[in-house]
């Protein structure tokens, strides 16, 4: 069983920056995909994911503004968010996908508002 502990989040002004981190318990295979999703009222959507070898995928809406990184030794994934916009406001969920199984963090609220 994998448990995910998220940190970061909170209130930030438009144009500001924020970093989220997510630490996974246990040993996470380099083949696992780690990343972030978000949910405003409506569907949960992919924000960014990365493989253990560094292949990264971003939602079009965050390309050029958000950067995902991963520390395999620490089983931790980060999301650096820059140039934040009000439409980035959502609950952000950490995700680890191991084979067909998805593990989710508890979610952390990010609110972009002046």
Secondary structure blueprint with pairings:
Blueprint: E1 4-7, E2 10-12, E3 18-24, E4 33-39, E5 44-50, E6 56-58, E7 66-71, E8 76-81, E9 90-98, E10 101-104, E11 108-112
Parallel strand pairs: 2-11
Antiparallel strand pairs: 1-3, 3-8, 4-5, 4-9, 5-6, 7-8, 9-10, 9-11
Describe this structure in words.
The chain has 114 residues and is an all-beta fold. It has no helices and eleven strands. The strands form two sheets. Strands 2, 4, 5, 6, 9, 10 and 11 form a seven-stranded mixed β-sheet that branches. Strands 1-3-8-7 form a four-stranded antiparallel β-sheet, with no helix packed on it. The N and C termini lie far apart (40 Å).
In short, what is this structure?
The protein is built from no helices and eleven strands. With 114 residues, it is mainly beta. The strands form two sheets. Strands 2, 4, 5, 6, 9, 10 and 11 form a seven-stranded mixed sheet that branches.
What is the average per-residue confidence, as pLDDT, rounded to a whole number?
A: 95
| Alpha-carbon Rg, integer | 13 Å
Distance between the termini: 40 Å
Total strands = 11
Which features characterize this protein?
114 residues; four-stranded antiparallel sheet; seven-stranded mixed sheet; mainly beta; 0% helix; globular
